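Protein Entry — a single chain follows
Fields — amino acid sequence, structure tokens
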Amino acid sequence: MPRTETLASQHLPRRSTLDREGVREVPYLSFDAVVGRNSVFEGLTEEEKEELGGVEYRALGLLSFIVVGYYVGLQLIGFTILAPYSNYNHDVRGTVKSENPKVDPTWFAAFQVTSGFTNTGQSLVDASLVPFQRAYLMVLTIAVLILAGNTMYAPLLRLIIWIGSKLVPRSSRAYETLKFLLDHPRRVFIYLFPSHQTWFLTTVFGLFTLIDWLGFLVLDIGNPAIEAIPVGTRIVAGFFQAVAVRAAGFTVVNVAELAPAVQVLYVIMMFIAVYPIALSVRSSNVYEARSLGLYHEWGDEPTEGFTHYFRYHLRRQLAFDIWWIALAVWLVCIIERAHLGDPDLPNVTIWSIIFELVSAYGTVGLSLGSASGLVSLSGDFRTFSKLVVVFVMIRGRHRGLPLAIDRAVLLPSDIRQQDEIDQEEAALAQSPTRSMTRTTTLRSKAMNTRKETGVGSFRLEPTSTQHSGGSVRSTD
């Protein structure tokens, strides 16, 4: 991608510059602008900054309605499908009633829909979805909700915005706002990405799903527990597990009965599931220019471009995550020393502990199960081991956050101050001593201005990056 691009306003008279390479006509600006990498507008006047802030504010308002509609609408569609299915399918209704006569099938459907979309993985049936292996409509509906609520959240959200831009009149304000969201998504929302990154995420998630699906079908050949399942049901079950293994704790087969190679594959996928989203968030962060190799201040990051940036962050993330997992496994093995090798607790092994902790770190929720078969392996842990699992889950939930301050969590006034700092840093990058002094002065000035005006901002973001979530932007 080019480092800069010229945006020409459609509201100005056409000029020959539109024919030049790197010049694109846009409807949401009344002026021409030069845009750098990650939607950084360069050299704007105060009036142009005010106008850009207004466009961004309208985009944020429209996006808030789209996100709420996305959350409510998809769950309503899922409930509309599963509620009558759970009531009128005799197998589903009979299984629900046999597990707990007090649970109404309609409530069961609502619970499953919400659990699938939010990637919680909890079920009102102790055996998760294992009793519903042949309830194909339920299994596939929940699989779609799992994708929509987590791994495919960003691509589907951009698809909805793109479809909206094709449906509204091109002369409307809504069209201008939707085009701004498509062109500069990361100025507004952490989990909305440019086109090329959205295609990258879609491709990676599709590849991961295909690997898990084929691994389930091929590596379990000769496994009596899996081959006892009819072929058609086995194919659907394999697809569902491929979808759920990286995000939700649902299961349609007993994970402990899977081939060891499949269990290892699932551990790998649970561990790396967050990486595509995390790296996309960081690579599209407006204020990570140093990480992208445009320039650097301290000399601790590579400056050769995106490939080196990607490798740098991948090595850093892997090393950081492995230390957390290794420490957690070591602590649990110390605490559960008496349980390891106990014939009364045959499920408590070093491998099952690793599986449990990686699943917790990936906030997935899969488990090899306890000796009782009614709870996860954590049910057999001592109290301190359970606390370690809780801590690992909390840490894993937040590992997809951006490393630097993100434009999507700033108000326009804060953005202008940060833009001034970034422009000064870029201009003075060749003189490290002078750059450091000038940057410190600018940051101090910005902080004083905020204290005097009482302006601040925050945004609440459910991260699941590996996840999904809406946003709240406010001022103090």
